[in-house]
Amino acid sequence: MSREPSETHVAVLLGGLSSEREVSLVSGRECAAALRRVGYRVTEVDAGRDVAEVLSRLKPDVAFNALHGVWGEDGTIQGVLETLAIPYTHSGVLASALAMDKAKSKAVLKAAGVSVPGGGLYDRHEVARRHVIEPPYVIKPNAEGSSVGVYLVREGANGFVAEVGAPDWAYGDEVMVEPYVAGKELCVTVIGEAAGPRALTVTDITPAKGFYDYEAKYAPGGSKHELPAALPPAVFERCLREAEAAHTALGCRGVSRSDFRYDADTGVLVLLEVNTQPGMTPTSLVPEQASFVGTSFEELMRWMVEDASCRR
Question: Which of 73, 178, 242, 273 is catalytic?
């Protein structure tokens, strides 16, 4: 975009309809505050089912997508914005939908030469009755983010995860079951620049309670972040290159975040998933990595607005 911030009206989409609504509200408010500090005219839009009507009335120059989870991260809101011809931040319809579907994105990443974990999709009722693969393994919804509905079944476990088969399970009848990779939880932010995707650095995440779940991601003190991660140089470089390859393979634009597991004892490194709408809360990894490489939160927000686009 060529306009000055003071000439640009940005609608920050936040909240939404998913299980990650509360995180999105925090992310969106942080982003809106930073955009105002830069000088943009900002309207915060709690994106409900009337969002198309609201945006048609507001007529913003750009939509800053701070939504997380289904509807905001899976290509749905992106399709609305394409229909309204409003340039928007982050990835487009196809990349968003593809990255949100763990099974389909794993297939694409594997074909692109990115190391991904094994496992596959299973009926949730079967998973609740027996071990479909040998423990230890991880159960996760096929199309959720922020570690919502994720369970770790440890080695030697006799019982199963009854919650997955419960009547109130809200995350679909198929779940992803993957072998658990012990060791480090790593992440890499990728910026989709015109010259090609650029990985920033690698963060090593140590959860306070032993598993990087929803609370560890978002609660103050829920995890410790070490950046740059203390890794063998070859492993560090591989994380950067695989994150860039994943960003490209899925067709992402703007900012993405790739999450890895690394077992130093076995040398296994796998990319767990690519987040096309990474969190922007005070504890989030993307702003932290951007700051580490010399980009302030306000500079990152301005770049994302200037990078916004749509097909029309």
Answer: 273
